[in-house]
Amino acid sequence: DAGVTQSPTHLIKTRGQQVTLRCSPISGHKSVSWYQQVLGQGPQFIFQYYEKEERGRGNFPDRFSARQFPNYSSELNVNALLLGDSALYLCASRGGNWGTDTQYFGPGTRLTVL
Amino acid sequence: AQSVAQPEDQVNVAEGNPLTVKCTYSVSGNPYLFWYVQYPNRGLQFLLKYITGDNLVKGSYGFEAEFNKSQTSFHLKKPSALVSDSALYFCAVRDMAGANNLFFGTGTRLTVIP
Description:
Number of helices of chain A: 0
Number of helices of chain B: 0
Largest sheet of chain B: 6 strands, mixed
Order of helices and strands of chain B: EEEEEEEEEEEE
Number of strands of chain B: 12
Structural class of chain A: mainly beta
Strand content of chain B: over 45%
Structural class of chain B: mainly beta
Helix content of chain B: under 10%
Number of strands of chain A: 11
Oligomer: heterodimer
Strand content of chain A: over 45%
Radius of gyration of chain B: 14 Å
Helix content of chain A: under 10%
């Protein structure tokens, strides 16, 4: 079975631009979460969606937004990019919405903001 | 608030020797704890988790972790290290108050010396 997939793999943008990252969860998984991993740090939680509804939001500015589609895939949008948004963006999926559920991560999208 | 701490940025071990990567946690209530591994330019791979039950948890690739409530620790262990175990290891704890997202430590880089 395919794991979590993300696209694109790499992305280079300039300050002020907007970016959209995409994620497809493991087949049958209904929950998708987004994390930001800045170089040298652990991942930080951005959003969680379950059954197409936002179920949680981390401490990120309103420039960050996301949505989940009927097929449970998800997009993360970041507007007005800043240099500090350069990071590896990770998507994770899990079957349900229980704390005991394991999150499985995709390979990530490396975003560079110049 | 929940958090985990990984006190060692770097751990070096000789191939064939036992390895330990340390993690301590701070939560109110019973913790759900996870270990992930990250290889260069890759996403996170799930190793194991502790939810409840036996304090010794066995996971993928021969790894295990010991949950110690009195010391609030969840150290990752392997009896005999392989060169291929060299990677970045993250400990994480479930957010008890929110969307079941994960709070990650800052990571420990493990280097296994041939």
